[in-house]
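input
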Amino acid sequence: MRGDGRLVALNSYENRVYQIWLETPAQFGAIVVAKFYRPMRWTTEAILEEHSFTAELAEREIPVVCPLAFKGETLHSFEGYQFSVTPRLSGRPPELDNTDTLTWMGRFIGRIHAVGALRPFAHRPSISVESFGVEPRQYLLDNDFIPSDLRPAWESVSAMAIEHIRHAFERAGEYKTVRLHGDCHASNVIWNSGPHFVDFDDCRMGPAVQDLWMMLSGDRTAMSQQMRAIVAGYEDFCEFDDTELQLIEALRTLRLIHYSGWIAKRWLDPAFPAAFPWFNTQRYWQDRVLELREQISAMQEPAIGLNGAL
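output
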C-alpha cells in the first residue's frame, strides 16, 4: 500500500496509531489505520495471539475490527518496530444510557465470550490482584512517585484496598476464566448500525464480568438496572455466573491502581507528561487517596444484584 502523504495521529498512548490515506483505494477502502506497537510490551507470540483471537471472532461474523493480512502475515516490522494495519471504520460511541443499547452490547459480548471460552490464551496473561494491584503499587512506591507528605496515607489506603480486593475474590470463590477483550469501555466500541469492537490490545484471561462492568455508571440502583439489561442480552449466547457480581468493585479498584502505575511506568515517554500534566501533582495524589477510601467502602457493601443487591 502506498500512502498519498496524508497522515493523522489518533488518540492512543500505549501504542502509536495513525490514520493513513492511500494513493490508490484498496478493496477495504481508501483509508487504513496503522498501529505501531510499544516495544517490549508484548512478545511477538502474544501479539499474534491477539490477532488470531480477533480473526477467530470475525470468522464467526462477530463485528470486530481485525488486522489485514498481507502475504499471509498480520504482524510486520520496520527498523525494529512492529506494526499492523486495519481497515478504518467510522461511527460513534454507543449510547450506554439506552437500555436497548446495553442489551445489544451484552448480546455481542456474550458471543465474544462464547468463543473465548473454547480455549485459553497461551501467551497472554490473566487479570490478577498481583499484576493489576500489587505490582503497580510497589512500582509507585519504589520509584518515589507519591509526595513524601502523602506517602504514608496512600501507602496505607492502597494496602487496605488490596486486602479488600483479595476478600472480594475469596467471596466470589471459583469462577470460570475466558479470553476477554480486557478493556471493553465505550471508547473501544464503534457504533455503526450496531456495535463493532476495536482494540484488543489488552485482551487476556479473566472473569466474564471484566468486559461488562465498565459499561455501568450512576448509583447502585442504576447500575443494577444497567447490569440486568446487559445480562439479558449476554445470556442469549453465554451463561453468566451471578457470583461474579462480587468482583465488580474489586475490579474497578484494581483498574484505578493499575492506571496510576501505567502512567508512572511510561513517564519518560515525552507523550505522557504532555497528555497527563496533572499526574504526579499534590492534588492528583490527594484525590487518589480519597478515591481508594471510597472504593474500600464500596467493596464492603453488598454487591449489586440483577434485582437490587446480593
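quick obs: The chain has two domains: 3-87, 99-309.
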